[in-house]
Amino acid sequence: MRRDQDTLHPGHGRAAIMMLSREQGPDAHPFWYAQVLGTFLIAVSHRGVDRMMEVLWVRWFGVVPGHQWGIKKARLPKIGFIPDSPGAFGFLDPSLVLRACHLIPAFSEGRTDSLLPHGPSIARENGGTDDWTAYYVNMQVLFSNLTKT
Questions:
Q1: What is the mean pLDDT of residues 79-98?
Q2: Tens-place pLDDT, residues 48-83
């Protein structure tokens, strides 16, 4: 039976989420992926209306260019963190999240410290100084959970 919710622990490297992509076209990937770094409940005042708003602080993944994937190709989708730029981090409405996802480090590609400025960062697992170069999205877990009722 499929669970109605997933439990994530931000900042532990295992808090990967997926949402529907807004990209279109024949080569568009159907999902966007992110690592949750934190959750916040913020007070917002806009045009005299006060309300509380939940947001996720995320570090975005991008699809590895040129990587062919799919069931017919017998290859998993491959993603990697977006290098340090204004678009590498963002805030996300939790209602856009489809579910947590399982990522497998691409061990053969090793680790890199070129995606963020050198040194420890809250955006890295356990305050580490480098990241895995790429990850595989475990479609086996995704599709088996989506097909159960």
A1: 91
A2: 999 999 999 999 998 888 777 766 767 788 999 999
For residue 64, the SS3 value is: coil
Token pair belonging to 136: 């595989």
Q: Which of 37, 56, 35, 58 is nearest to 132 (CA)?
A: 35
Which residues, in sequence order, are CB contacts of 25 under 8 Å at separation 6+? none
Q: What is the C-alpha radius of gyration for the chain, rounded to an integer number of angstroms? A: 17
- Return the structure tokens found at 4: 């109605």
Amino acid code (one letter) for 40? F
110/81 Cα distance (integer angstroms) = 14
What's the pTM value of the predicted model, to 2 decimals? Answer: 0.80
79 and 137 Cβ atoms separated by less than 8 Å: yes
